[in-house]
Amino acid sequence: MSLVEQNGKNGARLSEARASDYLALLKPRVMSLVVFTGLVGLMVAPGHVNPVLGAIAILCIAVGAGASGALNMWYDADIDAVMKRTRNRPIPAGIISREEVLVFGLVLSAFSVMVLGLFVNWLAAALLAFTIFFYVVVYTMWLKRSTPQNIVIGGAAGAFPPVIGWAAATGTIGWESLVLFAIIFLWTPPHFWALSLFTTNDYAAARVPMMPNVHGEASTKLQILIYTLIVAPVGVLPWAMGFAGPVYGVVSLGLGLTFIAYAWGLWRASSAEAALKSAKKLFGFSLLYLFGLFAVLLGETIARSIPHWIGA
């Protein structure tokens, strides 16, 4: 039996997509990181958020992120079909039609923005709407196919969740949330350029102008090192600005120096094989770096809140 059957009477397509296929459209791995950083933004904000409203805010951030992922797959179906790591996604695999995914993504987008605005506040909702627009229109439709700086500028979309979380808690945009934005924004290029170094052929086949395909491996390795040298000290700023404690300060310094060491090793790699291994190691560590920073920040915030919870 085929995945999509034709109705013999009227030619209507009967989708056999399962719940897991629709879940795949939401890019759950990316969504989990978005939800986590959004939660940290919500938790580190001053004051105390009503737990129900906080849960609604995080749910809306998750749904908005999933909607962005679905709309990205709708537009990039042609690219996904020729890339090894994406060709089994629901649209190129023939499980769900592009039209269904477009409607699915638009409905989720509208739902997430409206619920966040009606139940939490409209600043957070506006930021979520802008994030979805930026990822789908600015990054996916324009930057991704037109410039090797696509991931640099487009990385702003993935950096907004802690700002949205902060806005949901306070109704404002604080300097602290902008520092968290900057950490993710500056982390994105070395993270994705490391990935592109060992998926170069995929991007070339899809005609996506990633940095290694346009400017070569040497230039990419140098830019990864430069961005890592910038993001490492920025990662320490939450402690320097006083909204993170000494544990965060020590951890962020250690993770930053390790990040630089991996980037330095990649830059110094003299052979293609050594560069490939170094790129994979850096890519893996970059995930640990970002998760580690936000996890420690969240842990310190919870620890400081315990006395208040007990007193309450």
TrEMBL record:
Tell where it localizes. Cell membrane
State the GO CC annotations: plasma membrane
Q: What class of enzyme is it?
A: transferase
Which segments cross the bilayer? Answer: 30-49, 55-75, 96-116, 122-142, 222-241, 247-267, 287-306
User: Do you know which InterPro entries this protein is assigned to?
Assistant: Protohaem_IX_farnesylTrfase, UbiA_prenyltransferase, UbiA_prenylTrfase_CS, UbiA_sf
Give the Enzyme Commission number: 2.5.1.141
GO biological process terms on file: heme O biosynthetic process
Q: How does it sit in the membrane?
A: Multi-pass membrane protein
Q: For this protein, what reaction is catalysed?
A: heme b + (2E,6E)-farnesyl diphosphate + H2O = Fe(II)-heme o + diphosphate
Which pathway is it part of?
Answer: Porphyrin-containing compound metabolism; heme O biosynthesis; heme O from protoheme: step 1/1
Keywords assigned: Cell membrane, Heme biosynthesis, Membrane, Transferase, Transmembrane, Transmembrane helix
Under the GO molecular function aspect, what terms does this record hold? protoheme IX farnesyltransferase activity
Task: Quote the HAMAP family the UniProt record gives.
Answer: CyoE_CtaB
Q: Extra info from the record?
A: Carbon 2 of the heme B porphyrin ring is defined according to the Fischer nomenclature.
- What is the protein's known function? Converts heme B (protoheme IX) to heme O by substitution of the vinyl group on carbon 2 of heme B porphyrin ring with a hydroxyethyl farnesyl side group.
Question: Could you say which protein family the record assigns here?
Answer: Belongs to the UbiA prenyltransferase family. Protoheme IX farnesyltransferase subfamily.
Protein name according to UniProt: Protoheme IX farnesyltransferase
